[in-house]
Predict the 3D structure of the following.
Amino acid sequence: MQKPIHVLSEIGKLHTVILKRPGTELENLIPQMMKFLLFDDIPYLKIAQQEHDYFSETLNRLGTEVLNLDDLIAESLTQQNVKKDFIEQVIDESGFLHGPVHDALEQYLLSLETQKMVAKVMSGVRRNEVELKEVGLKELTEDTRFPFYMNPMTNLYFTRDPAAAIGEGISINNMTFAARKRESLFMEYIIAHHPRFANQGIRVWHNRAQATSIEGGDELVLSAQVLAIGVSQRTDASAIEKIAQNLFENSNFKSVLAIRIPHNHAMMHLDTVFTMINRDQFTVHPAILNKKGQIDSWVLHPKKGGGTSIEHHTNLKATLKKVLGLSEIDLIPTGGGDEIAAAREQWNDGTNTLAVAPGEVVTYDRNYISNKLLREHGILVHEIHSSELSRGRGGPRCMSMPIIREDL
Ligand SMILES: NC(=O)NCCC[C@H](N)C(=O)O
């Protein structure tokens, strides 16, 4: 019987994926909150939705089952006590553990029918939407720079990051920045309460209560035995050690390749600078390699008798060949290696491909130099529109959370 989660590679035919159509959360993005909400500009929602619908239709046309995050969470909250717990938790995590604001938000959200409540939680609750029964010193002295009690979750359409399917389990991530912390709550409820996932023995490799942070854009399943993880702005080395240990003890994964990437917003996750597109082919943003073409990486293995051994490497090609047992590797440089084209196209997620089958990817149309090069390397490329979606700094891989891929 098909397990609810089954991802043993980055490239096996994509069977089932979770997406989130951009919604009114994007219309609650305002200039003074942009940096905090991890955006560089305000997307035009109508066009962003059209582009996203085209992405979803493209995946459908290629034979992928598309599940929507909003539906999954609403279907997980059918029991009144679960819905109430969810509302309590999301209010707590929005900064209101108790008090008049907490009570007003609770009353408001409980009054909404489940789907509307979910949409509201995602799009944010403005201060003027709820009436406080009393006002204490906390309310009088609080920071009112932002017009929301509950901030909009503008990054939700990047379903890749809050959780990642690895093997037949999942990592439910502790996100780095406040703007995204609440996002992984959805997957926690879905795994625990959705009929498709609940009580199926799904292993949780990392949970959101863990102090160390990790994000799905850094987690790449290179094979049934090898996981690559970025040491990045968003993922701590200590989180990598913990998840590696858990995988070594409880799954068939035998190696974790930790790759250190620059810590900045354009390259916030490993998948913004490196993705797998075929058994032996990868995209890579040339700027992550130093002048000698090197990058620091460490391979973690289980040690006999317990613990983990760590080997340091600097040659990405040689390291990939070694961990994957391949004789050749084709690293395809974003922007064809031209310094300016590479920087521009990486900024617009030219490196961030979503493999739908071995050697077959979905990419943004605007990265025409990288797309042409991929085709010259024999890759089948399906382009999607990207004018507005790209303003959030994420591409097709960031916008998708595969939960079932066919084995290679
Ligand atoms: N996997 C990814 O690279 N996701 C893109 C996330 C973009 C989002 N604005 C963020 O900064 O978290």
Observations:
- Residues 72-150 form a domain with the Pentein fold (CATH 1.10.3930.10).
- The CA atoms of residues 198 and 327 lie 42 Å apart.
- The chain has a mean pLDDT of 96.
